[in-house]
Structure to design on (536 residues):
């Protein structure tokens, strides 16, 4: 082979191995999700075996766990790292020069982020928990299909509302980042709160009965709990529609608060850097 | 200077440098506390609903949780150098500098940083442990404290071993692959429940392959009086053995190392 080609081949090889590492990272992430989901499913199975009268059935709880593993990147547990960088460098000033409404601009970015990432992660997870598990004899631990056509339809609507709500929370976090000049303080408090209150940690219906009225009416239930319960038929009919309405209401609230806060923050914006 | 004194110097320097940013230190510690205590809240919620888990009560699982959590928090704070090994040493070629110094690479990497912010994770582990002890009504003898103390030592060794293996992998992959996260964070998750809960193959994996059950489940069972079989108190030795094997593989990895530096 002629010597002239060799550097290019080296570049191809180097680039290839970098990309392979991204793939390895994706595989590692997927295996971690399986590990986590598997532990949760086994623990819940053991808990359900010792007691009757739980507020949801075991298969419903298992569906909840796998959907949670598949879609956990939809949770807005931190703001946009790009916005945090804009704030650190002072480039946030340029955002104000664009002939665009900054809130809508950031909101749209958040929508993209909360849609693209989960799609990539959800497909292998849903395939594994929903189909592969049945073939290797783990049907009892597998994700089931939606409980019916109506459930599937309402689930789809609810997921759209999840994205809308998640983006609204993200945009609010971004605005708070601008106000406090650092993304860390906000993430510290909001992250754990969302993990608990969305149902990502433990399905919300399994929390004590006295906590249910609070859990039902707080905004973060609309990030996971609502669609997952609709999917398995735990919420149906009028109750499900009511839950969708609550989700929509929280979207409106968060957008209004985020917008109002951004107007105030941007009015006295101080940029860093030089 | 002997190795221990040198290590002391390394650590003193590391702590001094972390003290330069007190606000950041406090914030990160609180964050570590808040994000890890959620696991314990989850366990509490499930017990409030179901009361029992394979015959185990909340306070018993709290003790199990405390032991695993404390061990991992300490291991995680000690092994920062191994955790960052791929990015900080192999990719940059900085590992060359460690090799030319007349001290073992393991000592130098251990001395890289003592992550003080892990006190947040440690605190919630201690809290869970204290909740368990308070609710248990057991007679606490020197023997039971010794067994749990040894369990923590075995646990530190095991988690450190996993991080050493993760670092060793970087000799071949250059970048640190976070496959080990499934075994460290995921291991904490698995180890905080009694092994009885798991399917047979998974239980075997947690005993014979990555012996997380041996550093928590067996010794804690002895202390709780669930298993009247004293040899179970010594199973954390397997955690130590895991670290020894991991360090053996590390040595082979060092021999395989070729610098990326220029």
């Amino acid at each position: 082979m002629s010597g002239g080609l060799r550097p290019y081949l080296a570049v191809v090889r180097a680039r290839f191995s970098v990309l392979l590492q991204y793939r390895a990272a994706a595989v590692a992430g997927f295996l971690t999700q399986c590990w986590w989901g598997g532990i949760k499913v086994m623990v819940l199975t053991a808990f359900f075996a010792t007691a009757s009268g739980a507020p949801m059935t075991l298969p419903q709880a298992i569906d909840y766990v796998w959907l949670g593993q598949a879609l956990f990147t939809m949770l807005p547990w931190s703001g946009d790292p790009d916005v945090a960088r804009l704030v650190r460098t002072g480039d946030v000033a340029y955002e104000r020069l664009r002939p665009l409404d900054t809130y809508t601009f950031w909101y749209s970015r958040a929508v993209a982020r909360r849609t693209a990432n989960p799609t990539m992660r959800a497909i292998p997870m849903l395939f594994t928990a929903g189909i592969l598990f049945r073939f290797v004899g783990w049907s009892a631990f597998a994700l089931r299909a939606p409980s019916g056509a109506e459930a599937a339809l309402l689930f789809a609507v609810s997921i759209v509302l999840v994205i809308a709500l998640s983006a609204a929370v993200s945009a609010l976090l971004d605005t708070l980042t601008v106000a406090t000049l650092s993304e860390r303080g906000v993430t510290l408090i909001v992250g754990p709160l969302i993990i608990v209150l969305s149902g990502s940690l433990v399905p919300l219906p399994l929390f004590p009965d006295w906590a249910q009225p609070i859990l039902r009416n707080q905004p973060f239930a609309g990030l996971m709990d609502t669609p997952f319960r609709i999917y398995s038929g735990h919420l149906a009919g009028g109750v499900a529609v009511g839950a969708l309405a609550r989700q929509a209401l929280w979207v409106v609230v968060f957008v209004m608060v985020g917008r109002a806060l951004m107007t105030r923050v941007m009015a006295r914006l101080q940029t860093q850097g030089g | 200077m002997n190795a221990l004194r040198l290590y002391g110097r390394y650590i003193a320097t590391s702590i001094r440098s972390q003290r330069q940013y007190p606000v950041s230190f406090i914030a990160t510690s609180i964050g570590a506390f808040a994000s890890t205590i959620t696991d314990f809240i989850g366990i509490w919620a499930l017990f409030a609903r179901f009361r029992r888990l394979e015959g185990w009560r909340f306070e018993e699982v709290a003790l199990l949780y405390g032991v695993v959590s404390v061990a991992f928090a300490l291991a995680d704070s000690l092994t920062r150098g191994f955790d960052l090994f791929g990015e900080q040493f192999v990719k940059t070629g900085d590992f060359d500098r460690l090799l030319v110094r007349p001290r073992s690479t393991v000592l130098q990497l251990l001395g890289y940083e003592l992550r003080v912010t892990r006190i947040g994770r440690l605190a919630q582990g201690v809290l869970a442990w204290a909740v368990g002890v308070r609710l248990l009504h057991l007679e606490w003898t020197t023997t039971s404290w010794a067994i749990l103390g040894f369990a923590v030592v075995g646990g530190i060794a095991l988690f450190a071993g996993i991080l050493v293996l993760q670092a060793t992998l970087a000799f071949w992959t250059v970048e640190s692959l976070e496959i080990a996260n499934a075994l460290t964070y995921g291991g904490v998750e698995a180890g905080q429940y009694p092994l009885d809960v798991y399917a047979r193959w998974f239980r075997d994996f947690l005993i014979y392959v990555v012996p997380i059950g041996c550093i928590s489940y067996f010794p804690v069972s002895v202390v709780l009086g669930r298993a009247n079989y004293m040899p179970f108190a010594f199973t954390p030795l397997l955690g130590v053995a895991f670290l020894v094997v991991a360090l053996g593989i590390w040595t082979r990895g060092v021999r395989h190392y070729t610098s990326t530096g220029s």
